[in-house]
């Protein structure tokens, strides 16, 4: 065992990315599992098939890597290969916080812990869904060992599943319990590397009408989403309001086997609780006061296609029970319909900006429904975490609005206007950015009555549009500072090398630069309590020092220049 660990550690230390670490880990685990099969009574009838690393910190998937036994390289998720994710396996690992063995044919889940009960029965109640079991069997996997990826702090940030084919062991112990300690020890050694190493750079993805802008963070997420899109299991998209969850849901639909079929959206924020069941399932004439005719619900309208249910945390407990029945049985009954149920051929995508697990603990969301919708979870990054996308989205929004007004005209943002947008906080995400761009576009149009030529949005137009955001009730300064700190830490975690804390000093320069942009150089210093520097004529030197810090931050992030590079050039020329 020491030799196995030493070899794995050597391979992991040499790994430059998640994919290399996953390949090294899976090869070692497969070797141990194959050795256990070869020395068991199933030697002639059992075989290890594959291993899959599921990295899902904070519940949401970040990376997937599969290695077939005998393969030289891991399977590339970006080509749409049939990766398999299992809500049954994940639920068991999280609940028991240890490795588990799954007998697919019998439908039992056995934790690798002393005196832990075996769950499931011949009716396959141990499985999260019928589809989950069928997908295992479709891959010829009769027995699965699931190992938690535990960080040194004890958190579970993913799992490794090993799949084997051995019909002879149906209803009996396979080799997983015997080899479990060795397998788990190797998984524990690999966990910190798998959780912290960056993914391999992905090729710049193609953009389209459904996702016209893709930055670095989204480019890393899209390979997983392509895989998820091709499955019929439920996708759960979490993320802040306005971040683009509905657009991402439509993108998944267009890359699924259901493209060309209906795509229906049900935003529960707009539906009163007493009408949620009716909106979901439809109703018959006379089912309730005001039901003057039959009406199909969202499920019926989405038949054959995809139903995106947004803000699922707003669903009442009564409606949750109805949705749970629909997800379990794929059948439903419209309100007021007497007997019998209708079958639903619908793929579900769920959106939320809430922590559903916390909602479960608070008793506001059913635990069984949570595990039904948390099958393929992904997290949509907030716009503040996708700053490289801000200028691209702004230009896209300007072009779209200008084409509506003047199909032959052209519109663009000046670099200074883009920099001002990048340097602004976006608590409202893409929705807020669209409002700002709409406002700035209108201000530019006021000065440019002839829309037949090129329309240019300058920094002053964006600045004035942003000023309207500073209304009563705007985000308090401590909250905004906390958001900036979160963005700094998020960037540090995404990088391959540490992000020097001293670069956070750039905030002073940004504040000073924005003040000068808005009220002028001397007045900007006075506004921020540095009038003495102006009186002593030392403010040029102070401004240069602060703006150099901003420039250093942008250089460290690989950006071409800071939003205040022109101010810095002016000061340096003095």
Q: Write down the overall mean pLDDT.
A: 87
Sum up the overall morphology in one term.
globular
What spatial order of strands do you see in the largest sheet? Answer: 2-1-6-5-3-4
> What's the count of strands?
15
How many helices? The count is 22
Q: Low-confidence segments, ≥5 residues, pLDDT <50?
A: 121-125
Number of domains: 4
Largest sheet: 6 strands, antiparallel
Would you tell me the structural class of the helices and strands? alpha/beta
Helix percentage range = 40-55%
- Give the termini distance in whole angstroms: 69 Å
Estimated share of beta-strand residues: 5-15%
- Radius of gyration from the alpha-carbon trace, in angstroms: 28 Å
Keywords: ATP-binding, DNA-binding, Nucleotide-binding, Transcription, Transcription regulation
Organism: Myxococcus virescens
Domain Sigma-54 factor interaction: 211-442
Protein name: Sigma-54 interaction domain-containing protein
Descriptive overview:
The chain is α/β, with parallel strands linked by helices. The chain folds into four domains: 1-196; 216-381; 384-469; 493-573, no CATH class. The chain is built from 22 helices and 15 strands. The strands form four sheets. A six-stranded antiparallel beta sheet has the order 2-1-6-5-3-4, sandwiched between helices. A hairpin with a 4-residue loop joins strand 3 and strand 4. Helix 1 (2-13) runs antiparallel to helix 2 (18-38) and helix 18 (506-519) crosses helix 19. The protein is globular, with a radius of gyration of 28 Å. It starts with a helix and ends with a helix.
């Amino acid at each position: 065992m020491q030799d196995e660990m030493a070899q794995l550690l050597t391979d992991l230390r040499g790994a430059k990315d998640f994919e290399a670490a996953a390949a090294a880990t899976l090869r070692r685990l497969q070797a141990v599992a194959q050795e256990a099969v070869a020395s068991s009574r199933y030697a002639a009838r059992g075989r290890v098939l594959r291993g899959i690393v599921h990295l899902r910190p904070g519940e949401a998937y970040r990376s997937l890597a599969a290695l077939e036994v005998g393969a030289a390289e891991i399977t590339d998720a970006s080509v749409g290969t049939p990766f398999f994710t299992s809500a049954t396996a994940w639920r068991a690992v999280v609940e028991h916080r240890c490795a588990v063995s799954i007998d697919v044919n019998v439908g039992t889940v056995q934790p690798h812990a002393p005196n832990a009960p075996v769950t499931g029965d011949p009716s396959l109640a141990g499985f999260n869904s019928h589809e989950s079991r069928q997908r295992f069997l479709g891959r010829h996997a009769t027995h699965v060992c699931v190992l938690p990826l535990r960080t040194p702090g004890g958190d579970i940030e993913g799992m490794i599943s090993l799949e084997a084919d051995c019909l002879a062991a149906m209803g009996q112990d396979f080799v997983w319990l015997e080899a479990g300690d060795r397998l788990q020890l190797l998984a524990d050694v690999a966990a910190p590397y798998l959780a912290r190493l960056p993914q391999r750079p992905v090729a710049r993805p193609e953009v389209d009408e459904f996702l016209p802008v893709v930055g670095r963070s989204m480019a890393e997420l899209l390979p997983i989403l392509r895989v998820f899109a091709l499955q019929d299991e439920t996708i759960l998209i979490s993320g802040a309001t306005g971040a683009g969850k509905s657009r991402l849901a439509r993108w998944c639909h267009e890359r699924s086997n259901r493209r060309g079929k209906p795509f229906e959206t049900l935003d529960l924020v707009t539906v009163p609780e007493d009408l949620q069941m009716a909106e979901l399932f439809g109703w018959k004439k006379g089912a309730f006061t005001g039901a003057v005719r039959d009406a199909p619900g969202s499920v019926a309208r989405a038949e054959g296609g995809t139903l995106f249910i947004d803000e699922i945390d707003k669903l009442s407990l009564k409606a949750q029970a109805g949705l749970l029945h629909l997800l379990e049985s794929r059948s439903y009954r419209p309100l007021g319909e007497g007997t019998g149920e209708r079958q639903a051929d619908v793929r579900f995508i769920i959106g939320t900006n809430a922590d559903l697990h916390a909602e479960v603990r608070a008793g506001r969301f059913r635990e069984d429904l949570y595990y039904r919708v948390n099958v393929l979870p992904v997290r949509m990054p907030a716009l503040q975490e996708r700053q490289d996308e801000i200028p691209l989205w702004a230009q896209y929004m300007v072009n779209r609005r200008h084409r509506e007004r003047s199909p032959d005209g052209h519109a663009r943002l000046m670099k200074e206007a883009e920099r001002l947008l990048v340097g602004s906080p976006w608590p409202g995400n893409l929705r807020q950015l669209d409002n700002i761009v709409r406002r700035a576009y209108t201000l530019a149009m006021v000065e440019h009555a002839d829309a037949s030529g090129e329309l240019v949005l300058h920094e002053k137009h964006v600045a004035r549009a942003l000023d309207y955001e500073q209304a009563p009730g705007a985000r308090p300064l401590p909250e905004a500072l906390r958001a900036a700190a979160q963005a700094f830490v998020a960037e540090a975690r995404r990088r391959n090398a540490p992000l020097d804390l001293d670069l956070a000093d750039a905030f002073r320069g940004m504040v000073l630069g924005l003040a000068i942009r808005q009220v002028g150089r001397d007045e900007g210093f006075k506004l921020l309590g540095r009038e003495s520097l102006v009186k002593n004529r030392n403010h040029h030197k102070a401004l240069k020092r602060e703006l150099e810090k901003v420039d250093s931050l942008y250089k460290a992030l690989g950006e071409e220049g800071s939003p205040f590079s022109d101010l810095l050039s002016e000061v340096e020329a003095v």
